[in-house]
Amino acid sequence: MGESSIKIGQEFGPSVKLKNLYYVYLLLVLVFGVFSWYLPTIVVIYFFSPQLVKIIVTLVSIVPLIAAIIFILYWIPKYFSSIIYKMTETEITWNRGVWFKIIGVVPYNRITNIDIKQGPISRGLGIASLKIQTAGYSASSASGGFSEIKIDGMKNYSEVRDMILDFVRGKKPEAVETYETLNEEDVKKELVKIRELLEEKLK
Questions:
Q1: Residues in a beta bridge with 149
Q2: How far apart are CA 44 and CA 91, in angstroms?
Q3: Backbone angles phi, psi at 163, to 5 degrees
Q4: What is the pLDDT averaged over residues 16-44?
Q5: β-strands 146-154, 128-135: how paired?
Q6: CA-to-CA distance for 139 and 120, rounded, in angstroms?
Q7: Of 11-20, 23-32, 74-83, 168-177, where does mean pLDDT reach its minimum?
Q8: Beta bridge mates, 148
Q9: Contact 153/18 with Cβ under 8 angstroms?
Q10: Helix (H) or strand (E) run with residue 85 in it
Q11: Residue among 165, 166, 97, 96 at smallest CA distance from 133
């Protein structure tokens, strides 16, 4: 289910463009992190080394590299398909992972902030991630820090953020806000009124 049809209580996933983003990242790593130094080295070895060295280099470097690329190309669609989110009336649940599953639950009343993260490539693809920060909920925040989750690859990210914020605002108790606006003098006045009412009833 795409993010364009998010419904309360139903699972949804990221835009298919997130998978394209992973492929772009892989290509950039290969071009700038591997081929920029790897290919010139291989060319030099193949032109100026004995046949035995060429065979050893092929077995030791080229074959593992090709195997790693094939593995990543297999892993990307599997990982993409494993990303699932669900919004209920009280919380957000999410899980992801091909071999090792990660599952999380974040109540709306624990959410403190939502940031939209969008890099240049994501911007070109028209997607963004929602970085949701929570306080005092998970073990990672036990030391006073913040825990967070990410809703990745959203196309209509602004609408998803507003949808979450609507739930967050709806969960804020009015009693807490009212209490925080009272100063010491207001509290004393209220106590005096309560005492007067009690005295009148006891007469």
A1: 132
A2: 58
A3: -65, -45
A4: 84
A5: antiparallel
A6: 33
A7: 168-177
A8: 133
A9: yes
A10: strand 84-87
A11: 165
What does DSSP assign to residue 109? G
Which residue from 61, 95, 76, 94 is spatially nearest to 164, judged by alpha carbons?
94
Say which residue the tokens 């009336």 belong to.
89
84-87 and 91-96 beta bridge pairing? antiparallel
Query: Letter for the amino acid at 10?
Result: Q
Contact 106, 85 (CB under 8 A): no
- Distance from C-alpha of 144 to C-alpha of 142, rounded to nearest angstrom: 5
Q: What is the phi/psi pair of residue 30, to 5°?
A: -65, -45
Residue 93, beta-bridge partner list: 86, 105
> Distance between alpha carbon 61 and the CA centroid of its chain, in Å?
35
> Token match 């509290």: residue?
187
**Residue 177: pLDDT over 60:** no
Structure tokens at 152: 């990745």
- Global pTM value: 0.67
Q: Residue 120 is encoded by which pair of tokens?
A: 């240049």
Residue 133 is given by DSSP the state E
